[in-house]
Queue: 2 jobs
Job 1
Amino acid sequence: MSRAQRLFIADDWRDSADGAVLPIIDPATEEQIGSVPVATPTDLDDALEAAEYGARHCRRLSAHERSACLRRMAQGIRKQSDDIARSVTLETGKPLAESRAEVLATAEHFDWNAEEARRVYGHVLQEREADTRFEVRYEPLGVVAAITAWNFPALLPGRKLSAALAAGCSVILKPSEEAPSAAFALAEIAAAAGLPTGALAVVTGDPARISSHLLSSGRVRKLSFTGSVGVGKLLMQQAAHGLTKLALELGGHGPVLIFPDADPEATATACARAKFRNAGQVCISPSRFFVHRSIAARFRDAFVRYARDLRIGNGLDPEVEMGPLTNTRRFEAAQALVADALAGGGKLLAGGGRPASQQRGFFFEPTVLADVAPEARILHEEPFVPVAPILEFDDFDQVLARANALPFGLAAYLFTNDLATAEHAADALEAGMVGINDFALAAAEAPFGGVKQSGIGREGGALGIREFLEAKTLKTVFRGN
Ligand code: NAD
């Protein structure tokens, strides 16, 4: 079973005011493994009140005190990493090794932001007149609402929380109801780390009702959201009502450009490994593979071999390399995208449906497509499934135009050892992050975020904490009247 879940409000665990719950489903077995409370408006008002109290007290902590709390949280996460990782696998289906890596990366964000808390530098301006001074200070924004997706249920809340708490804000976190356990574990760890009461609340329930209640309250200073472009747009409209500040980490459709000098087999293996990680349910997942025609056949063969050899099964089995999709919506999306590509003339090179070995669960085979028509849905919509369309190109300018043609711009990748090609392509790619000969773009020290419709703002790195701070300008005249 998953952990027993209750709302975390004012440092207290409670059921929702009317006792309503939603089921948590194990995607590998389709069985209910727990339940999550549905917060009522009264619960949300209590969370807001506690968060306002928390914000006043977090702000009064010194930066060094906040830093020490975050360090303790990092240690707490590491201590509980096995338990949290298991719950992540149970709720999302991802292999245990991926869950462990996610939880340890979450701890790194707390360590990183423990340092950033101590490095918020204001500045003093050169005076215009004698005996005067302009000074710029950075202050915490106040109450932050954070809403996160299910695909990285520890890391996504952890990135937001660690930066907001480092800045001296309080946070009301609404994780995904499909994979909430890691967020509740973070609440337990926060409570033990010595943060002021109300520094963190965790609520779950009806997402649209929660976001509109929080945003219309006039008490939330910033909404930090990770999820789909569609919901991001809805939230932007709701935030406009009170001009609430926004950070949006949204979807993408990562192009990969494989230039003729790249090693076709080694690059195909790296591409396939990245594509099928978390069954393709990664916002920076490579999802459109543009291979130079001269090496396309060798690349395709190696990619298909990797896809066929992947061990699929329950993520709790240590031998398993790819688990199920997290929910039935993703399974249906995979089916629909493949059917549409094939109807438009695409060729199926591997996979294409439910693996014969898995009769239950939301399992979908690692799938490779070729000759996909330019108008196929999979080349335009973020797939978020383990389906890889392999496309060919001849010309540098043409492939860049194809890569940049979508309204998204989260991550893009290129493979070449030619310095000039790498420089020109990286410069021209419209993306918040570019991986050159590598896919590992997410790290605590590196800013993470997108351009165009992939989002607003950055998480991680030196920029992450900035999202939760506001500048205050002071002018002093050193002369009593
Ligand atoms: P989603 O937008 O459906 O849900 C994300 C969160 O928003 C969840 O907590 C959900 O409960 C909530 N939500 C859903 N509908 C809502 C509504 N009407 N009002 C308020 N909240 C609502 O996305 P998802 O399917 O959970 O996650 C997949 C998406 O997240 C993909 O598009 C993926 O690319 C994106 N993502 C982006 C990043 C990033 O850092 N850029 C990271 C991970 C995932």
Note: The CA atoms of residues 77 and 470 lie 29 Å apart.
Job 2
Amino acid sequence: MIDQSILVLDEGTTSTRAILFAQDGALRGAKQAQLTQHYPRSGWVEHDANEIWERTLACARAMVDKAGGAARVAAIGITNQRETVVAWDKNTGEPLSRAIVWQDRRTADFCRRLKDAGHEAEVRARTGLLLDPYFSGTKMRWLLDHDGAVKAAADAGTLAFGTVESWLVWKLTGGEQHISDASNASRTLLLPLDASGWDQELCELLGVPMETLPRVTDCAGELAVTDPGLLGGAIPICGMAGDQQAATIGQGCLTPGETKATYGTGAFVLSNTGTQVPWSDNRLLGTVLYQLAGERHYAIEGAVFVAGSLIKYLRDTLGLIATAAESEDLARSIPDNGGVVVVPALSGLGAPHWRPEARGIISGLGFDTGRAHIARASLEAMAHQTRDLASGFAADGCQWTGLRIDGGMAVNDWMAQDIADILGQSVTRPDFVETTALGAAMLAAVGSGLKTELREAADTMIGATKVFSPAMNEEARQQRLSRWEAALKKV
Ligand code: ADP
């Protein structure tokens, strides 16, 4: 048997990448292209859907060549920035407008009106989400209300809506398939967590015609087949998941309680909650982690707004450090934080505090406070924010059983150890940090039958990890926790 590869298309917010994996998870190649960010107004963020497609295709072609041709690629897996909406015409296959990106806040007024009309409790109960511009359904409605071409296509019955995986599959199949996997579909506000397809009432509430939406599929299986003309031969598309879900799978969080945190600009935390539909009393999100053979596995999701962006702020705005990595050297250069606490509420406090009006503070300054103390306290804030999330998850009945970390900030060993110390739980970091792409490769491996199930994919494809075990003495830990609580009260 020839040694076929798995091709992953990882469509992020700032770049699109094609990544080639061997069946044991080893990296065989990667090709990346930047995506143009359009900011037409304050709070608006747009992408050019044709640019996404063309650059993704170019990267994919490079990796198919690297694999030795289409016959050497067993399957494609797709993972993507979630909640970004593309509108296109089913007849022409052309985008009707710019894509509205997940960060875009233009539907804030619409969300407020729905909330004021008392709809949030029901929407939360059914979808696990909040009435927030973040989610894709309100963006679809905005396009119908404000874009003439989108409205005209809706009237003519040729409008297709989709998130980015849906758009890519449409293009990759030459317009044959209009599908969205359940993990992406669960971010629209239109899919009840426990229903197999879109909900008529939710579609009516948001004003999105159901016939414009893709068919909801599993996250693995023979989901579609590429147009043979595009990549030099037909290749099956066998795995799809939103980026945070894919990272959770790529971290091997396949048992309830297993949790991953991605520390990038902000931090995204997802905990596997198994096959029970999750419910949060702490305004955490309930979401589909993956769907296989029609069966859903769920996750609770929480986010910290400020993570790596705090280190960037120390570097670029305050000029306290020259490089992000210097934060680690400074933290190690002193025995403790000298009483300094940083609460990084630079853009409000997210879960589980939910105080959008909050602003950051540095407390405990004295003449003996140096930049090392502030750098150390900034890294310490990551452990505290993570622990607060863990408490919120626990209050919702989801006890973490260890934490797996990734993202650009997770290279910081000092921070990883501090998180373990403050959580009182082991923290695991894979040597191979591209967990999002690996998760999509694992889904594609299962979907194509290369692996029998996700557990086998995890056991055979996830490589070596480094474990940080809690080592702080309890007195020091309690002091840290009480100082953090005191500082939070001042925010
Ligand atoms: P994103 O995907 O959100 O753009 P990344 O995962 O690339 O972010 O992570 C980059 C962030 O990590 C930056 O905000 C940077 O400040 C931070 N970072 C990078 N290296 C370190 C380090 N050694 N210690 C602390 N923070 C770091």
Note: The radius of gyration is 22 Å.
